[in-house]
Specification:
41% helix; Rossmann fold; 8 helices; seven-stranded mixed β-sheet; 2 domains; alpha/beta; disordered N terminus
């Protein structure tokens, strides 16, 4: 390969790295979007209005394990850790090593664990970390752009891993996730947040108590 071709290949990666250093958290998020747009789904993190509304139904005094799919740069992680009990745990799962590495370097909380992996394997992941079930699972994954079969698999695994009385919390730009959720969760509450880029749909799928 010629020197000019090698320079052309290196230029995009070098540019993304400079953007990441320049803009910190937002730069890291943007870099992740550029590299894996089908898995991130948004060019900027969720707004505080979306965060507050999405987490409002959570009964924090009853929550021992909170799981998040696709945490990005921790937009939800920090509010969740602020609200959680001192003996609770937060496990986040992401397929992008850029985000997992960033979170492990920036969140110094013994209750927090970032895992490089797929949400399809949530049951195995939480068992590896000493848990039998999750109380709440949060997801911002773009279900409408996930590879075929992945969305339904995640919805099914999530229903199995959530304890009776717990919930699957989902925020999306489309209603595709609801279609997958409806096959497993009998009660799904819906909401909408205008003050977000882009405005998003909110879903809370509740698992019936035993």
């Amino acid at each position: 390969m010629s020197d000019s071709n090698q320079m052309a290949l290196n230029r995009p990666r070098s540019l993304r790295s400079r953007v990441g250093r320049l803009f910190g958290q937002w730069g890291v998020f943007f870099r992740g979007f550029v590299e894996h747009p089908r898995m991130v789904g948004s060019i900027i993190p969720s707004s505080r209005f979306t965060i507050d509304k999405m987490l409002a139904p959570v009964k924090w005094d009853e929550c021992k394990l909170f799981v998040e799919y696709g945490p990005g740069v921790g937009t939800f992680c920090f509010p969740v850790l602020e609200k959680m009990r001192g003996d609770a745990a937060l496990i986040v799962i992401d397929t992008n090593p850029l985000y997992v590495d960033y979170l492990n370097k920036t969140i110094a909380d013994s209750r927090f664990t970032a895992v490089l992996g797929s949400a399809e394997n949530v049951e195995e992941i939480i068992k590896t970390h000493g848990h039998d079930h999750a109380d709440y699972v949060l997801s911002g994954l773009p279900f409408s752009t996930l590879p075929d079969g992945v969305g339904p698999a995640i919805a099914a695994a999530t229903h199995r891993v959530i304890r009776p009385g717990g919930a699957f919390l989902v925020y999306q730009f489309s209603a595709k996730a609801r279609d997958f959720m409806a096959k497993h969760f009998n009660r799904i509450d819906e909401g909408f947040e205008l003050w977000n880029v882009l405005p998003c749909k909110l879903f809370w799928g509740w698992k019936d108590a035993a």
